[in-house]
């Protein structure tokens, strides 16, 4: 059975395929998640997320192809990193594609690594965003995440890659 679109907005669609109901991105829009590590520090962002009703600690990320059809992931990732964090990467390498909740949404994301960072502004996102930029030593990431969680900040699942070695030990 092929999926039927039962609702479509500007960025999202709701699909039904047999017994499955799921959300997907509209218009072929993709997403890039950016791992930016500079001299042993990882660059994180914290912002309010409407679907969960609270602030969330995350890796920088952004949409690909939402404004420019056919946009390269690396170009979008560099743009989003600079907009959100104020860091401009001199190089961006694609790591691979991943799916964070494949039982509920068809959206995946491309993880990229931003390299050779240059600080060009304070970041903070565009006018509709209120992004706080955090530069955190990788050696202290577990404590930083625990402190943010204790403050009531949600933690994005993608931060598990930074916590992984400590969780496996």
Provide a descriptive summary of the structure in words.
The protein is of the alpha+beta class and 169 residues long. It has three helices and eleven strands. Strands 4, 5, 6, 7, 8, 9, 10 and 11 form an eight-stranded mixed beta sheet that branches. It has a three-stranded antiparallel beta sheet with strand order 1-2-3, with no helix packed on it. Strand 4 (30-38) and strand 5 form a beta hairpin. The protein starts with a strand and ends with a helix.
What can be said about this structure in brief?
With 169 residues, the chain is an alpha+beta fold. The protein is 19% helix and 46% strand. β5 and β6 (54-58) form a beta hairpin.
Task: Label this structure with key terms.
alpha+beta; 8-stranded mixed sheet; 46% strand
- What is the succession of H and E elements? EEEEEEEHEEEHEH
Helix segment count?
A: 3
Helix content: 10-25%
Mean pLDDT value = 93
By DSSP, the count of extended strands is 11
CA radius of gyration is 17 Å
Low-confidence stretches: none
What is the overall shape?
Answer: globular
Distance between the termini: 44 Å
Q: Structural class of the secondary elements?
A: alpha+beta
β-strand percent reads over 45%
Largest sheet: 8 strands, mixed
Layout of helices and strands:
Blueprint: E1 4-8, E2 12-17, E3 20-25, E4 30-38, E5 41-49, E6 54-58, E7 61-64, H1 73-85, E8 87-99, E9 108-119, E10 132-137, H2 141-150, E11 154-155, H3 160-168
Parallel strand pairs: 4-9, 6-11
Antiparallel strand pairs: 1-2, 2-3, 4-5, 4-7, 5-6, 5-10, 8-9
């Amino acid at each position: 059975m092929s999926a039927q679109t039962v609702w479509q907005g500007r960025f999202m669609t709701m699909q039904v395929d047999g017994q499955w109901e799921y959300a997907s991105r509209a218009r072929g829009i993709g997403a890039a998640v950016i791992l930016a590590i500079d001299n042993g520090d990882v660059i994180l962002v914290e912002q309010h997320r409407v679907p969960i009703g609270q602030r969330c600690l995350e890796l920088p990320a952004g949409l690909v192809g939402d404004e420019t059809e056919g946009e390269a992931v690396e170009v979008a990732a560099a743009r989003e990193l600079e907009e959100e964090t104020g860091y401009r990467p001199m190089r961006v390498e694609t790591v691979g594609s991943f799916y964070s909740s494949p039982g509920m949404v068809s959206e995946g994301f491309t993880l990229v690594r931003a390299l050779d960072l240059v600080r060009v502004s304070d970041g903070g996102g565009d006018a509709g965003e209120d992004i706080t930029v955090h530069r955190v030593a990788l050696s202290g990431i577990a404590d930083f995440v625990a402190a943010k969680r204790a403050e009531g900040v949600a933690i994005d699942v993608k931060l598990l890659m930074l916590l992984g070695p400590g969780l496996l030990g």
